[in-house]
Amino acid sequence: MMSAIRKFKPFQVLFFLTILFIFITSPAPASALTESEVNPVNTPEGVVVLIVDGLSAPFIYPELTPHALDGTPLEKASLENIPKINEDSARILEFRAPQTFTEGGHSVLVTGNPGADSELVSFKDATVFDVLHRQGYLCIGVMEKGDSWSIRAEQDVILRDENNSINNMKIALEQQEQSPDTPEIPGGLLQVLEEAADKAPGYITSKETREKYSGYDRWGIDTACAVVEYMARNMPGKKYMLTVNVGAIDSSGHHRDNYGYVDCIECLDADISPLYELCKKNNLAFVLTADHGMGFSKDDSKGGHQSEKFSSTEETQLVPLIVYAQDIESGVVSGKHGQEDFTPTLLGVLDIPDRPRFVEGKQILLTGHVNLKIKLPEKGYAELRKDGNLITSLKNDDQFVFLGLEPGSTYIVRAALDSGKSLEEQEKEVLLETDSVIEFMEKGHKNTENVKSDLGSEENTTSMAGFLKGNSEASNSNSKHLIGYFVIGLVNLAGVAAIAKILKKN
């Protein structure tokens, strides 16, 4: 007896191909994450990063004295509010910029890579913003300078001065195109930003040079305050990073003399307190830093920072880093540190052990605790032991974070998979000096990075970034395109077959 052959109707074929297309193009489900607070931590609800363009640490740090190229000591800023902020904050004494120009400084700050540029910033998982987006943070920018194309692309929404000009201020509001991967921007926040953009010209109407320059920076501070107030009132519990760049101090260094530069610093000092107090009130971390400093040839001269004669000076390379959060241990932090340490340090303050893809900087430990993240290839179990004693255990997940661990202590991590599959190692020992990530691999799968901390690696280099982007991303893109073309072709053929069948019946 001949077996029956089932004939599929064209619409059934179309339905099957549609389901196949959706299955192929749908992203894999995101990994889950379970946290355990081993010891109490007070994680900030977000962070405000104030990047003061061109602010030199020797002009505001009491331990340092600025000098001109000819050796003349220069007048320092007389400050009232920044010293008060220092009392509750950690202040890094030596924080050095490896690149003394605006694009380079911002690129290093957000990637943790000392050789970073705008192109590296644009790479996948290359910045602090990428790490924070994976944690559900909203990234907001208010930038008068430093708004390179790749920095802008990392923000969910940004206000920026298109002209980077005090005399011709032109504020534009930009936001990412909406997609399943981008968070929705609240209409109320957009309204706050639009109102701030409309008010901007009123800050620079004065004919007095001092008031015009200080007004430029004051607009940035006032706008940041408006954003923090909106988020506290309308989106409590929503974590976010607000990046603020104020540009008048840099412009003062270039276009006024060193006395005008110092005067502009003092004006910012007078305006900064409301933003800092809002951060304290709403459990936000507050960070003050700069992209580069400023040097002067002699007393009563205009300054610079990028040219060869200025770029190697302490006044140009040394920038401030002042960090406030409720868990921060206040005081002066000694040692040699660089801008590449900024991103791992900031993520540590936010209790996030993950790091950007090309980070080479190390975490400056500013809290009294460290954190440990465990990654499994699939759902499983992880337990944490110290001195032979079980500290805590977590299960039914593929990622775990242990918060509030003791710095300088050795821990044992044991893991197993729910499926019963074997791991390359069931137990790992780790000495925790800073936040770390431990990855367990399924048996038979090579693991190149068992423990990731802030030690850097050979693949975390700018040159390697080009190779990684050019090969892995290109090949993934090409594969997706081929699959898409194949499915579209099959759908078209099925459509033609259906039309032909209808015509034949008629």
From TrEMBL:
Highest taxon, organism lineage: Archaea
Record field: transmembrane: 482-503
Gene3D superfamilies: Alkaline Phosphatase, subunit A (3.40.720.10)
Keywords: Membrane, Transmembrane, Transmembrane helix
Metalloenzyme domain location: 226-338
Pfam families: Metalloenzyme (PF01676)
InterPro entries with a match to the protein in the record: Alkaline_phosphatase_core_sf, Metalloenzyme, Pgm_bpd_ind
Name recorded for this polypeptide: Sulfatase-like hydrolase/transferase
Organism this protein belongs to: Methanosarcina baikalica
Lineage: Archaea, Methanobacteriati, Methanobacteriota, Stenosarchaea group, Methanomicrobia
